[in-house]
Specification:
alpha/beta, Rossmann fold, GMP Synthetase, Chain A, domain 3, 5-stranded mixed sheet, globular
Length: about 600
């Protein structure tokens, strides 16, 4: 049993005993030690620890006046900004539990979270308050003058380890989002482990790039602010482009960074100066399929964990291809967390065999907010732990425990596809396509665009300098897969669409058609007409259109600054030239871009 079950609750982790039980007290301690140190930056804005402490205390006082206390949910809907950091800390200082809400989400979804939590207060700005004016709660406008009259000392806070720290909403299999209740005990354990595992000190400069409703955004805040480090918030354009994100990290001298898996896979393929300040790049959110190249001047750390287990449950450094083969593992169990690989009877499987991963220990959430039946079905009694009332979470993830103690991720139990009587694991096809020299990223899904006609469709991001054909891809896959697992269509994309959380947005994958499908014909020559067609295809994919004319205005078709930055990034990847954003604004057509790219290519 000892080799099959990782139970680390008895392991002493240095530093944990020195960390206050709850996060807000730990941040206050750093503010007392380093009042003039930079706590966070966003663009040209800077806030010191003294200012952060004062602003958060004023907000906490205001929330207490509004009736917020222990276990009371408080909505937090602000863009990535210093105000967002102040808002989260102020809610924790009031004793309440913050509910992170991404302003980019539809108003209906945001209103659902407020109604479902029965939050009496929403912390936001004036613009968001107007957008959500139908909400049945009190609005506290963080950038208003009303907070200036509040005292700036830490209000009395009786938060205990078992009390709620935050409630994060995740997608539900029934189509209705569900709120995961995370306690201070779980959050404090995550923070203490993180600080110890990655040797975080007050000298570190950390990035904040995750989507605001993605629980990784929680992870990016508290380990650094409780250590006295400085936090650097990236804007939405920068965080969505690997090239811009790399340049921003270098400019800000970031020492510990995070990037969602699809972005991280592109970051490690870029050129980095050998003297880069970055020492650790953390990633997670999806299955990592790329190993770092030899000579990368920082460590890549893969992390795994459902929201129901406080962000991270396993973690490990990813070795290069020359150091280790196969898909990157998801690491070993973190401190004070228990992991079990079990079969349908909740019995431990033999070493090296596939089983469902169950997680117990310090990180397990209280449950789903106001969903007792769902909580009971997913959070079950932990028969391997002697602690009274111990529970474990059924992840639904298939894993295998390797001899070195690391876990390999093998997809979801419910990800199986059945086509013509065959049961198919898409992850197996994805892994096979990953081995193709032209494929950078891919995702495989089952489509049924016509009733009764279910087909496998593979979506690919390929290297621009390597031509691919559908026949060539099929022949390649036939070397390792049976015929029934060969995708019927291959769709070429400039980048995989992402959700605000940084995960692959399967719902946004386009319908295969003649404009995007990989055919058996070779790629056209680089004539002027072919150049325009390639640019038009890249722009149309971003605008989610089948095609666009060479004289159509990019911005009049629905383009905006974020898509514009992505277009520039995609053009850079396709042609190897740097088109400026100014060019796009002055010549926002395919014809104009083709003229500029042609000029750059001739230089």
């Amino acid at each position: 049993m000892a080799t099959l079950v990782s139970q680390l609750s008895s392991v002493h982790v240095p530093g944990i005993a020195d960390t206050p039980q709850c996060v807000p007290q730990a941040v206050s301690r750093q503010a007392m030690r380093w009042p003039n140190a930079i706590a966070a930056t966003s663009g040209d804005q800077v806030i010191t620890y003294r200012e952060l402490e004062s602003c958060a205390n004023r907000l906490a006082r205001r929330l207490c006046t509004a009736g917020v206390s222990t276990d009371v949910p408080v909505g937090l809907c602000l863009p990535r900004s210093l105000e967002m950091v102040v808002g989260a800390l102020g809610i924790l200082k009031s004793g309440g539990a913050y509910v992170p809400m991404d302003p980019a989400y539809p108003a209906e979804r945001l209103l659902f979270a407020l109604e479902d939590t029965c939050a009496p207060v929403l912390v936001s700005n004036a613009e968001i308050a107007r957008r959500l004016s139908s909400a049945k709660c009190e609005f506290v406008i963080l950038d208003s003058l009303e907070l200036s009259a509040e005292p700036d000392d830490f209000p009395e806070n009786r938060s205990q380890p078992a009390d709620l720290a935050y409630i994060v909403y995740t997608s539900g299999s029934t189509g209705t989002p569900k709120g995961v209740e995370i306690t201070h005990a779980g959050l404090s354990n995550l923070v203490a482990w993180h600080r110890e595992a990655f040797a975080v000190t007050a000298k570190d400069r950390a990035s904040h790039v995750a989507g605001l409703s993605f629980d990784a955004a929680v992870w990016e805040l508290w380990p650094y602010l409780t250590a006295g480090a400085s936090l650097h918030l990236a804007d939405d354009v920068t965080r969505s482009s690997p090239e811009l994100l790399r340049d921003w990290m270098l400019e800000r001298a970031v020492t510990i960074g995070f990037a969602p898996t699809p972005i991280a896979e592109r970051l490690i393929g870029l050129e980095w100066p050998m003297n880069t300040p970055l020492r650790i790049l953390l990633t997670g959110g999806e299955a990592l399929r790329r190993r770092p190249p030899a000579g990368l001047p920082f460590q890549l750390v893969n992390n795994y964990g459902p929201s129901e287990c406080t962000v991270v449950a396993t973690s490990g450094v990813v070795l290069t291809k020359s150091e280790s083969g196969g898909s990157p593992p998801i690491g070993k169990t973190i401190a004070n967390v228990h992991t079990y690989v079990l079969d349908e009877r909740l019995e431990a499987v033999a070493a090296g065999r596939l089983g469902e991963l169950y997680i117990g220990g310090a990180g397990v959430a209280r449950g789903y907010h106001r969903r007792p039946a769902l909580t009971e079905s997913r959070f079950v009694r932990d028969p391997f732990c002697r602690e009274a009332g111990a529970r474990m979470y059924r992840t639904g993830d298939l894993v295998r425990l390797r001899p070195d103690g690391q876990f390999e991720f093998h997809g979801r139990i419910d990800d199986q596809i059945k086509i013509r009587g065959y049961r198919i694991e898409p992850s197996e096809i994805v892994a096979a396509l990953d081995r193709h020299p032209a494929v950078l990223q891919n995702v495989v899904i089952a489509r049924e665009d016509e009733p009764g006609d279910k087909r496998l469709a593979a979506y690919l991001v390929v290297r621009s300098q390597i031509a691919v054909t559908a026949a060539g891809l099929r022949d390649f896959l036939r070397r390792s897969l049976p015929e029934y697992m060969i995708p019927a269509v291959f769709v070429k994309l400039d980048c995989l669409p992402l959700t605000p959380n940084g995960k692959t947005d399967r719902a946004a994958l386009p319908v295969p058609d003649t404009n995007n499908m990989v055919t058996d014909a070779p790629a056209p020559d680089d004539s002027t007409t072919a150049l325009q067609r390639r640019i038009a295809g890249i722009a149309a994919a971003l605008l989610e259109r089948e095609s666009i004319g060479i004289h159509d205005n990019f911005f009049l078709l629905g383009g905006h600054s974020l898509l514009g930055a992505q277009l520039i990034s995609n053009l850079r990847g396709a042609f190897g030239v740097e088109v400026s954003l100014r060019t796009l604004f002055t010549a926002p057509t395919v014809a104009g871009l083709a003229e500029e790219i042609g000029r750059l290519l001739r230089r």
